[in-house]
Amino acid sequence: MLVIMAKAPRLGEVKTRLASSLSPEAVTAFYCCLLDDTLALARSLGDVEVALMCPDTDVNELAQLAGSAASIVAQKGEGLAAGLTSVFAHFAEGHQGRVIAFNSDSPHLPRSVLEDAFETLAAHDVVVGPTHDGGYYLIGAKAFHLTLFAHDGMGTSSALERLLSHARALELSVGFVAPFYDIDVVDDLTRLAEELRLDPARAPRTAAWLKEWELVAGQPRTSSRTGRGAL
After folding, report:
1. 219 falls in which pLDDT band (50, 70, 90)?
2. Which of 82, 140, 177, 229 could make a disulfide contact with 100, Cβ separation 3.0–4.6 Å?
3. Distance between CA atoms of 163 and 166, rounded to whole angstroms?
């Protein structure tokens, strides 16, 4: 099971850290592209069931956007930690198999990373995909652990550290996949544009949006940022 952590693309409610650099309409349009390409990435695994986990107020909008590409499940509680807890309570309770959750802004992930996550999870209780700033973009488990995301510090530089601390307390073995970056600030857009310029087929809607953004904004063709963010 592969679960995308998603929100309905409403003005002012998605990718809010980009709001200082882009209009609300542009941010929302960009998020739609990210989500669409991330969903296509998830579906490309072929033999893996795909779902979206979202706030209960977003179910209908996301069902219209996703169509038959994924099932839509409403999380219990508010916030990302509650959403992740809901993923494993819903899909992994009763040891039904390997469940992996990842970001809706991840069309730049190579499919091999997701495949590696499932393989790694076969040999561990938990698999994690770290971000470069101390967070994580991917988390997988084979069972529901109630306290795994307690006091998680989501969105901070201590998110990964706290997750691993909880895993140790639960005596869970942890495997890792390659570190990656999330799309949170303008420098992340520049980095993503550079990558997709070389291979736009990886995320065609996102690549097209970024190409237009670069033309309109006159963005530089290079960037030294390593990216930041957390799932």
Report:
1. low
2. 140
3. 5
Instruction: Judge contact between 123 and 175, C-beta under 8 A.
Output: yes
The pLDDT of residue 223 is above 60: no
pLDDT beyond 60 at 222? no
Residue with tokens 């309570």, as numbered in its chain:
89
3 state SS for 107-133: CCCCHHHHHHHHHHHHCCCEEEEEECC
Third-level CATH fold of 2-217? Spore Coat Polysaccharide Biosynthesis Protein SpsA; Chain A (3.90.550)
What is the enclosing helix (H) or strand (E) of 48? none
Backbone phi, then psi, for 182, in 5-degree steps?
Answer: -95, 170
CA-based max dimension of the chain: 52
Residues paired with residue 175 on neighbouring β-strands, in sequence order: 127
Q: Which residues pair with 182 in a beta bridge?
A: 228
Does pTM top 0.85 for this prediction? yes
More confident residue, 91 or 220: 91
How far apart CA 21 and CA 17 sit, in angstroms, is 8
